[in-house]
Amino acid sequence: MKITFLGAVDGVTGSRHLVDTGERRMLLDCGLFQGFKQQRERNWLFPEALRDLDAVVLSHAHLDHSGYLPALVKHGFRGPIHASPATCDLAAVLLLDSAHLQEEDARRANRYGYSKHAKALPLYTKADARRAIAQLVPLPPGRELKFGAAAGATRIHLTPVGHLLGACAVRLEHRGTRVLFSGDVGRHDDLLMPPPQPPEAADVLLVESTYGNREHVHEDSAQRLAAIVRETVARGGSVVMPAFAVGRAQALLLVLQRLRAGGLVPRSLPIFLDSPMATEATTLYRQHGKLLRVKPRELATLMDGVRIVADAAASMRLSAARFPRVVISASGMATGGRVLHHLKMLAPDERNAIVFAGFQVGGSRGARLVAGERETKIHGEFVPVRATVHHLQGFSAHADRHELLQWLRALRDKPPRQTFVVHGEPAAADSLRQAIERELRWPQVRVPQPGETVVL
Ligand SMILES: [Zn+2]
């Protein structure tokens, strides 16, 4: 058996790991590269290793794990894409939106002529996304999927790991060798998701390391958000929250509802959800409510008094409005989507507040604003940033270093023969590698090279 690490090796995006059993070629995750331009440009190079795949298995629906599927399909992949039922539902929403953004960006670049290319083309289209969605095949966690007959079969098994609705670790077993891929591991005290289930025993482990060198600050994010909202509204300003439409937007709604119910923010303060995808995702979160840790009664109140912004025209009108409000809008790192119009209108006014909740990938507009950039280019125009910018890290959906090690400790009686640390910036990945060697004393722990093939 061989594994080739095709992405999320020297960074946190583009998660793709090819497992070649000798009989079958299975791709674990098919993610989009995001963030720095040199990362995003990798999306345009189709790796030869992604040809002739038998199947894809997704850990979860986040685009850095699923967003390259339409490109894969565009290049001829016709096989099954296995994922948990909730992941299939969320991926359908995310992939269509991603294709829409790709098309919009290309269109805008052509219209305003700020593309360096003669004619900007989308990476993929909505038609490609629809084809990929049609290839999704739900695999309920806990059930085993078998490819092929008896001895030569490849078995796939999913285990929930919190993090995001439907997110699972993937175990692949072939001729007695078990490979476990963690996907993204969630937190023990996530607002929406239950704690991750312990990992299954494996010979080879691929573990994420997003927060491999950091512990979460134990700040009370809800209280901090309440203070920001109160102060902003008191000076006549508005709060704009760029939020990932799936997961983060629902967590923010939950917190805002709790703050409102507790009288910690004005009950009359209008809250707008300006993201069709977040609205759809909220419906899916409620449909899959059994997978959440939120009580049904509270889940039922998630959208109470929240105004849904229906179309782009209403969104533009809202961005120009003068009354204090909270606007939750995508994308979460302010790299695209409707939130850009809100930022364009609200960032130049010092009364307003911009609140980022969660991880900001290096190179994204969110990361630059959080780092203190006082000017940002939106749609080819320079926009001064005078609004206060806040970063609430307590909303992270990723296990921190301590929680990752805690999760791995479940395997202490029978540690994996080989462990590969993936999905982290170089410092984070190496730090987790050292911790696994020193604290857990596991043999053969490595951070693989991008594109490296390892024979197991
Ligand atoms: Zn994720």
CA-CA gap between termini: 6 Å
Mean pLDDT: 94
Ions, cofactors and other ligands present here are: zinc ion
Shape: globular
> What share of residues are in beta strands?
15-25%
Any idea what the radius of gyration is?
A: 22 Å
What ranges have pLDDT less than 50 throughout 5 or more consecutive residues? none
Q: Profile the largest sheet.
A: 7 strands, mixed
Count of strand segments: 22
Helix fraction by DSSP (H/I, runs of at least 4) = 25-40%
Q: Which structural category fits the helices and strands?
A: alpha/beta
Total helical elements: 14
Side by side, the strands of the main sheet go 6-5-4-3-2-1-22
Structure description:
With 456 residues, the protein is an alpha/beta fold. It has 14 helices and 22 strands. The chain has helices spanning 37-40, 63-66, 69-74, 85-112, 126-134, 221-234, 248-261, 276-287, 296-299, 312-320, 339-346, 365-370, 401-408, 426-440, and strands spanning 2-7, 16-20, 25-28, 55-57, 81-83, 136-138, 144-147, 154-160, 168-174, 177-181, 204-208, 239-242, 271-274, 306-308, 326-329, 353-357, 375-378, 381-384, 388-392, 418-422, 445-446, 453-455. The strands form four sheets. It has a seven-stranded mixed beta sheet. Strand 2 and strand 3 (25-28) form a beta hairpin. The longest helix is centred in the N-terminal third of the chain and has 28 residues, at 85-112. It is globular, with a radius of gyration of 22 Å. The N and C termini lie close together (6 Å). The model has no long low-confidence stretch (mean pLDDT 94). Zinc ion binds next to loops. Zinc ion is lined by residues 60, 62, 163-164, 184.
